[in-house]
Structures
1.
Amino acid sequence: MKTGVLVMAYGTPTTPADVEPYYTRIRHGRPPTPELLKELQDRYNDLGGTSPLAARTAAQVAGIAAELELRFPGQFDVRFGSKYEPPMIEDVAPSFVEDGFEHVIGLVLAPHSSSMSTTQYMDRARACLGEHLRLSEIHSWWDVPAFIAIIAQRVNDALASIPDDRRATTEVLFSAHSLPEKILANGDTYPEQLRASAQLAADAAGLTSWDLAWQSAGRTADPWIGPDILDVLRAKHAAGITDVVSCPIGFVSDHLEVLFDIDIQAQELSHELGINLVRTVSLNDDPAFMAMLADVVAARA
């Protein structure tokens, strides 16, 4: 009997026409205002019309499946379910029941866990699977040594592009997607996980100067975890920092929050401030990253 692997991720609009229904689902049935919709469409247009996330995620799922098949022929069946864009978790998870599986491993393509991200994925998967089979949940993998080693190497590769005479005024900024501050009242450890993973990566890279920032906060009445990366860049400039290496450690692929929020928005601000901003290369379907995730799945099995 094969073990099922349900890989889950946020999802993204696959065509320009999908932007409005996609954000309507995110907003729990409330369509974005015309002004917000135009802003969102403009951001996707800056990336060529759509985000590459769908293709990147498909490549990651295929990469995990290929690694598992290489090491454990015929033992795993890997399928993908999205939170907000077809194929949805609710459409894919029941297929394991229909096909007679007894055990499914749930893996979210996000290194850190929180009540508003990985927990929600697992809750939705569990609701679909019910009593029919056993779900083994992988909520986070930010502290896996192989992951830390990959991040540290990318940080050092980015630092190598900065002249030696400016290293003393260079700082590495690790960032992740912000979430509403209300999660902290219930003991959510998401911020602590980010800081711990950044510390591990900084130690592995031999860094002496680094900091944390948050990005991509939603527009709601509730306050979101900060400080925002744009505010941090302003503060670093005021403190005499000339060069910044941006390492979005909370993201696993090229998509809107990386390609727009950092490569366009943060880059434009850095140019205005006179800061040289360099971003680490995204993980995407790097073979070492795929091998690491396959290790995590195999260990859970």
2.
Amino acid sequence: MRAFLDRLYDGAAALAALFMVALLAMVLTSIFGREFGFHVRGTDAYAGYFMAASGFLALAHTLKRGEHIRVTLLTGRLRGAALRRLELWALGLAGLLSLLLAFYSVRLCWQSRLFNDISTSNDATPLWIPQLSMAAGSVILFIALVDEWVLEFRGLRRSGGAEQPLHNE
């Protein structure tokens, strides 16, 4: 199961990287279009879709690598059982919030597909297509938070304490 979850997080991160490259391609297309006098419809909209896809798909991988911003004002002072209880509470709350985000993201995507909702921009893209990445990223983040909660509960979670350098500074 561990290998599958790690592949899931890494696969989502690889997709996020591909969407970041696609974002670069859209921005460059827009720049070159202005410079050389041509216009490709939808470059701005697709740049936004690719940026959102990249952000959402990278969330779980970022969490698993300890790269999310943490407020260590309280956790840096706690030790032992108190720290463990706080971590379980925080991961549980984050898991609940990510479950809500995942549920409503999937529901939004489903409803956009059901109602044939399309972009109001000149590209007229069916909105369920770019919303898929938001839904998938939210679901994978929920899985990662449950994974972290279970690891913390079992005492197997690697967490950055005060002795480790922070990756987000």
